[in-house]
Amino acid sequence: MPDSKSRTLLADQHFFLSPQLSEGQSSDDDIDLNIIASTYRSIIDEHAFDEMVASWEAKLASSGGDAEHPKVSKGLFSQLLTFRNTLEKLDVPTENDPLKLAVSEVPGPATVLSPNGNVAVINIAGERAFGKRQGAFMDAAVIAPNSLEDYRALLRAATGQGNAAQAILTILPATEGYGESFLAEGYLIRVPGQSGAHIAIRSLEIAWGPRIAERLQQAFGLTQAESEVAHLFFRLRNLESIAIERGVSLLTVRTQIKTIMAKMGAPSNIDLMRLLAMIASREHVGLRGEAPVWHDPLGREKLIEMPDGRKIAWTWMGAKRGIPVVMLRGLPMTYLLPGDGEARLRDAGICLYVPSRPGHGNSTMDSSLDVMSDNLVALRVFLDQVIGRPCLGVGLASGTLPLVVEAVANPTRFHGILAVGFSSGIDPSGVQRLPQIQRIMLQLADSAPWVAELMAKSGHRMMRQHGLDWYLERAFRHTPLNQQTVRNPDWTALIRNACEHLLKQGHATFVRELQLSRHRMDTALRELLIPMRYLAPTEDPGIDLAACRQLERINPLITVEPVTDAAELVFYQRNDLILDRIIAAAHRN
């Protein structure tokens, strides 16, 4: 069992890590100035983060033979410490993610769906009303029968198969507290670079405040009678009902509505309804659609509470009482199966258990342990209390590493391991083949974790301000296949959930994940006594098949299977193949 004392220190929250400081002036003055300048500018300039990474690349290169322990001047350290303290004092940045804005602009239930119905984002009121969480699939059960055709037309339009850009939908709430039904606007959100549109569904049930009539009269020149008609239109949504309520002819109401539309600049009834809803919502400033924290989108999460209070969370996919398979996610933002993928496991009689590793989701991290020991504690408790027998272990990228270490320490835990995707712990030489940002972050996490933590904190702030696309563009812009995957809104809905899962407890989990990825596995792989199949995506820049084949030579129980048409997001790019291998291996034992 590994020594539980930390060999790779956690990048903590207060710069307790002491960098190796150099005395006086150095030849790195220009590089240091660039680091300082780009670091501070990253607060307001989203592109300065890339310059900060490039400056640290130059810093590492300038260290020459001592690149593993770059020296930092006292002046540079002082400036970075000041920057970190500044970050702590800054307010949470204003949200610019168009999908999150759509659900935060209204106080009532709101969600944004991908074209196949996956929940991309949702607010707290939406979780209650629609009965779903981010990353889950929302079926049509909450859509009233008289609105189903309009809803399906929106789904078709999102993939370019129609032109129904907006609709008024009747929603049948999944939970009590919203009456028998409520009306919602449905409309498309087109995000640049995405292959399809998202569908926003936002409640129109907003109280009509006492000052709204006055605002309509002052801002748009409506008469008292017209403002009353506008109120009835907002409440009843039916011209005949308005005519009955006011005791006038339908023609009179139509004429009044046309006049109101002209004065307010609304070209259609739907636009008028949306504009009235926006004005009415001004009465509720401060009652925005609050964003929920991450929860298991499957609604199946259970917690193991250890005697010291530590919690280990887990969920499952597939057949509830099926053959157990344990999967650990890694650094790539993937772990949720698409709906048809889970159906395949269900039909195959397999239960895919997914424990949240330390710091992810609702699982507790123990920062007094090094990252591998922390993971092994959680994994062992989960296997003892939930599985209780040998099973197949599936690791996604760095998620493979704890499985292998545990299999060496306790050979009867698993009857086999399926390793999916590149991890620098398995092939350290692959780090040099990675794109700049991944390569530098991994190097810093190993040699200067206090810098990696600072950059992760700055990056997390950027991601909160500029949305998921800021991260996706930097993480996957160098591989065309990955770019194609992240342009698909059905996949990004699941990737978004994986990001929230990793970052729920803060950016330190990301740094720990980088450190886990650097854990050397040479000895463990050589001593492994059970079969391991390594699915190596050939378009992942970290993968070199010649280097991978070395694994087969050091241990004949390891089989390398090249996977074409796949890169870092292999879990989604070749999901059918991965499920084929899981099903075959689970049934073989």
Automatic annotation (TrEMBL):
GO terms (BP aspect): regulation of DNA-templated transcription
Q: Where is the HTH luxR-type domain?
A: 219-276
What is the residue range of the signal peptide feature? Answer: none
One GO term in the molecular function aspect is:
hydrolase activity
Q: Which SMART domains match?
A: HTH_LUXR
Pfam families attached to this UniProt entry = Abhydrolase_6
Q: Which UniProt keywords apply?
A: Hydrolase
From what superkingdom does this record's organism come?
Answer: Bacteria
Name-wise, this protein is Alpha/beta hydrolase
Organism of provenance = Paracoccus pantotrophus (Thiosphaera pantotropha)
